[in-house]
Amino acid sequence: MTEIDEKMYCIGCGAQLQTEDKTKPGFVQESTLRKYVEDDSKELLCKRCFRLRNYNEITDVDVSDDDFLKLLDSISDKDALVVNVVDIFDYEGSVIPGLQRFVGDKKILVVGNKVDLLPSSVNKNRLLNWLQQKSKENGIKSTDQILVSAVKGINIDKLMNMIEKYRDGKDVYVVGTTNTGKSTLINRIISSNSEVKDLITTSRFPGTTLDRIDIPLDDGHNLIDTPGIIHNYQLAHFLNAQDLKTVTPKKPLRPVTFQLRDEQTIFVGGLARFDFLDYKTNVTFYVNQGIPLHRTKTMNADEFYEKHLGDILTPPTDVTDFPKFKSQIFSAHEKSDIVIYGLGWLTIPAGSKVKAYVPEGVRISIRDAII
Questions:
Q1: Cα(102)–Cα(98) distance, integer angstroms
Q2: H or E segment at 68?
Q3: Number of Cβ within a 10 Å radius of residue 31
Q4: 276-318 pLDDT, tens per residue?
């Protein structure tokens, strides 16, 4: 294994180079490092900066909560606009509570990404109002909000106009958690602006620390990409790569409705269980269509789960270290969504009572229905 001098840094972003973890700042492949050790006349870039320099492509890196909070604190000293990217499919799992407290009195644009995944029945104006209200509940005074799809290119031009409107000739910091599509969004912005693209392919990226990449704007200021903070309570962090692919939607969600009587249970693969405590009710699930939904009698549910986990109750496909279920009872005073962070949600009518089970460590909550 090639040893790295502890003072060896990427010339693009300033990250200390390492060969162990490609999701962390400063990752470089061992073969690339060996070539550099043999011939140091070439510039040594981390993989992230190499992809940006040669392919105009940003890949996200992850940082710990402490490192991310230090980054946010550093933004509070800057005169800048903050663009906060959230996953509209998994808002609760991707919001950064108290963001405003860390970045100070900056203007914050809240960008709800992945709008293409929501069913066409969603009222977009109502959803924008909902996004503003949820931001307020989480301590974020959003200057404005917009729904986009980085993958489909929906509203990207409108977002750029909004950024220009509010940045007042200042730098722009783009922040968000992992899995929000933040890097895909920045890549879309780069590719849709040919002037920025030409500049990026020929320039050095002056990042002063391991936790940012500066993308030049045409007035001498920068669009600054920051790493994604890891929310360990999202389901994604308990799944392997294959299962993560299964639960992550790529197409608009297809609602699945069940007419239920009391003492019935529905399993969402082997990832969640819902016991319905009402005599009779209708419920609608909004999860990726690749996840099987199984209905059984509640009296048989424990045995059913133990017998079929990892078999017909998949994902997870690897059940060796999969966390045990914890349960929580939810009562809906009005039409509500029960949200599993990183998986999706189910909508229940007013007056319903549901006992929900999710893996220990995964968060679950109830909200007013968004559809």
A1: 7
A2: helix 65-76
A3: 10
A4: 998 788 999 999 999 999 999 999 999 999 999 999 999 999 9
Q: Could you tell me which residues come within 8 angstroms of residue 318 by beta carbon, excluding any fewer than 6 positions away? A: 240, 243, 310
For the chain, domains (ranges, CATH) are 1-55 (no CATH), 62-229 (3.40.50.300), 236-368 (no CATH)
Give CA–CA dist 85/155, Å, rounded: 14
- Could you give the 3-state DSSP secondary structure of residue 344? strand
Beta strand pairing call for 142-147 and 108-113: parallel
Q: Are 205 and 215 in contact (CB under 8 A)?
A: yes
Of the candidates 248, 280, 283, 241, the one whose C-alpha atom is nearest the C-alpha of residue 266 is 283
CA distance 133 to 127: 10
d(CA 195, CA 188): 13
Nearest to residue 75, comparing CAs of 242, 247, 211, 233? 211
How far is Cα 204 from Cα 362, in angstroms, rounded to an integer? 41
What span, in angstroms and rounded, lies between the C-alpha atoms of 82 and 182?
13
List the one residue out of 77, 59, 14 whose CA is nearest residue 205. 14
Q: Which residues of 274-294 are buried (b: 16+ CB within 10 A; e: fewer)?
A: bbbbbeebebbbbbbeebeeb
Q: What is the pLDDT of residues 86-141, one digit of tens each?
A: 999 999 999 998 899 889 899 999 999 999 999 988 899 999 999 999 999 999 99
Using alpha carbons only, how large is the chain's radius of gyration in Å?
22
Q: How far apart are CA 38 and CA 261, in angstroms?
A: 71
User: Tokens 């920025």 label which residue?
Assistant: 196
Containing H/E element for 169?
Answer: none
CA distance 155 to 111: 10
Query: What spatial distance separates the first Cα and last Cα of the chain, rounded to whole Å?
Result: 54
Range with the lowest mean pLDDT among 168-182, 190-204, 328-342?
190-204
Q: Indicate the SS3 state at residue 141.
A: coil
Whole-angstrom distance, CA of residue 228 vs CA of residue 211:
9
Which helix (H) or strand (E) segment holds residue 339: the answer is strand 336-340
For residue 155, pLDDT over 80 is answered with yes
- Helix ranges (H only) for 138-250 are 156-167, 182-192, 194-202, 241-247
